[in-house]
Design brief:
By secondary structure, this protein is an alpha/beta fold. The chain is 39% helix and 14% strand. The radius of gyration is 17 Å and the shape is globular. The structure holds 5-O-phosphono-beta-D-ribofuranose.
């Protein structure tokens, strides 16, 4: 696969593929990338459109597993068939992020992604930024069983988030800082199975 942008969440081989239907989706999907970066999860990003570049979508989805990708996050808006079509070409878990559309505020995206007929699942997150962040957190949770560093990074994120809320009980005296402590980018080791 050429032309895929791999971020520095270490120069390690990407475990998560973040794809989106258009560059206009980046404003939303960058939150998935930033969250993975902060958790130290190696990932790649790519614009892959189900209707503008269908052959590329098939190539990306059908080769992802072989390339070492373990979870795909797919964001799209409107008649958002990218996550479902991607899921149809791979057995990897596909997490769908409904991008907020101008006409229907993302309700169209949400229903297009969530209402998959039985047989080809897409794990659907919330519309917009929250969904993008949660897709990354869910991807980390999926990977955490195999990669102990990722599970620990996720645990620390949760602890830090809780501590932040408890530390600032009065909203009138708060400057909300980032709740995520960046994890060092290290080469991930798989957990040894018994
Ligand atoms: C979808 O159409 C994309 O996922 C995007 O959310 C939406 C609009 O795309 P642009 O017209 O902005 O490229 O394919």
């Amino acid at each position: 696969m050429t032309g895929t942008s791999q971020t520095s969440a270490s120069a390690a081989k990407p475990l998560v593929g973040i794809i989106m239907g258009s560059t206009s989706d980046w404003e939303t999907m960058e939150h998935a990338a930033k969250t993975l970066e902060q958790l130290g999860v190696p990932h790649e990003t790519r614009v892959v459109s189900a209707h503008r570049t269908p052959d590329l979508l098939f190539e990306y989805a059908s080769s992802a597993e072989q390339r070492g990708i373990e979870v795909i996050i797919a964001g799209a808006g409107g008649a958002a068939h990218l996550p479902g079509m991607t899921a149809s070409k791979t057995v990897l878990p596909v997490l769908g992020v409904p991008v907020e559309s101008k006409a229907l505020k993302g309700l169209d995206s949400l229903l297009s992604i969530a209402q998959m007929p039985g047989g080809i699942p897409v794990g659907t997150l919330a519309i917009g930024k929250a969904g993008a962040i949660n897709a990354a957190l869910l991807a980390a949770a999926i990977l955490g069983d195999k990669y102990p560093e990722i599970r620990e990074a996720l645990r620390k994120f949760r602890e830090s988030q809780t501590a932040n809320v408890l530390a600032t009980p009065d909203p009138t005296k708060t400057t909300i800082a980032s709740v995520i402590a960046p994890a060092p980018a290290t080469k991930l080791k798989r957990k040894k199975r018994a």
